[in-house]
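Researcher: Please translate sequence to structure tokens.
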Amino acid sequence: MKAILYVAHGSRLPEKNREFRAFVAEIMQKRPESCQKIAFLEKEDESLPLVGEAMIAEGATEITVMPMLLFPAMHATKDIPEHVAKLQSAHPSVTFHIADTFGAELETVKVAATRIRDAKPSSNATILVIAHGSASYDEPRNQMENVVAKLSAELGIKVTLGMLHGEPDYKRIAAELTATKSPVYWMPYFLFTGQLVDKIRTGITEINSDFYETSCLELDKQLATAVIRKIEEAQP
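Model: Translation complete:
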């Protein structure tokens, strides 16, 4: 039996987890697999090992693991593969496929462009797109640099990159933009507004309270197409 295991980071805010479940439920409806479940990296009672074992107990013989993450940093590169490897070792007859993250997919970039347009920035404005980033992995920055280039081309205005973790540090970039005296809009390149976005907002406000904030990706329904593509690419 084929199955899909959607793996998310999870939030400390229950309402955000509910929103995420609703988002994944819509994706599940578009897939033919009869066994589909959600696991959380930060939720012990719905951890990847527990949910994976439950799927196997129900008869799953081929499991596609879909990281519900924007970029391949520690969770996608290390944590999820390690959990899957342990399941594979315990159940050698079960086949596992791990899909890629979807932060750099066309649909994700399109949603970001829409969020920025909705803020109605002036033609001389600079857009500061802020992602989670990583101090240990280069690929999130590499992918985000491509995202920023696509956004700049589509919007026809200057778009620059900042990271919460790693380089380019968003606070340093925000300070540099303050010195230009041009209007600045910042966009949190996150799936939803949670504690990390709140942290960034505090940091931005400390540097320049006149910066304009756009909405984040907010689990837009268009993202489902990107997720489904990644699932299909992972499957033989």
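Researcher: Any highlights?
Model: Strands lie at 2-8, 35-40, 62-67, 95-98, 126-133, 158-165, 184-188, 212-213.
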